[in-house]
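User: Second chain of the day. Same drill as before.
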Amino acid sequence: MKVLYANIEDVWREAAARWTLIAYFLLSSMFILIFAFAVNLDIVDGALAGAQLFGNDVNMRGAVSIEKLVVGFESGFSGVLYFLCTFLAIFATAHLVPRMQEKGTIDLYLSRPVARVKLLLSRYVAGLLLAGTNIFYLIGSMWLIVMWKTHVAHPRFFVAGLIILFMVATLLAFAFLVGVVTSSTAVSIMASYAIFFFGGLLIAHDRYAAAVSKEWQAALINSLYWIFPKTAEMFSAVVAFVSENRVPEQMSKALAPTPFLTTGAFAVACLVLASWLFHRKEF
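Assistant: Same format as last time:
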């Protein structure tokens, strides 16, 4: 536990010294303030009678149930947060392994009586804690603003934060693997974003497989789908869970355990491989 606490302190101190922490929370705070001032609701007897978005009136066809409004709004906004939190988290944490492997820094770390695997994994947990703090800062702030404006509390919105954190944990594990191999922050960021979008495109793997002419090509496409993280399915799961399944059936299917299990297996495999390579690496 001492190693974990030391790495958490080190990661947060490093983020503050490099202005990463300040920029991280300033960007999130700007997003929260824009949302708080952009949306104005006129609620009469528990129903929405009028609304303004960025100062422009939104056409309303009769009174709208405020509960349905909150569920619909938070399900849509959770999808926006999925991309925002993921992108910010990768920017804020992708440097953790390359920075640690710099000459002088790694010598200081390895001079301590700490196993390499424990050092890497504790740094991973510290980075995940940094990203998770920002996720729940955004989620909690948006939830409070919605409750303040509508007087309706929708706790399922917080589960979106858990699913987003799960996706961030997966991408961070991959970023650690790339960081161990390349010692490059830029490559870690680009590779993490690439796999994020590539995993999203593979949701249509059946169509891609049907379009190719060779069986081995179709088998390769389907294999890649099961190997890589299910980024598109995680997006659908965030929206479907918050909306209480008031979404198309295709999105509701993302709540099945298979996308979560295969994505989690990918993260574990990346961490195991990263730990093995880091243990064997010569400095």
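The chain has a mean pLDDT of 83.

User: Great, on to the next one.
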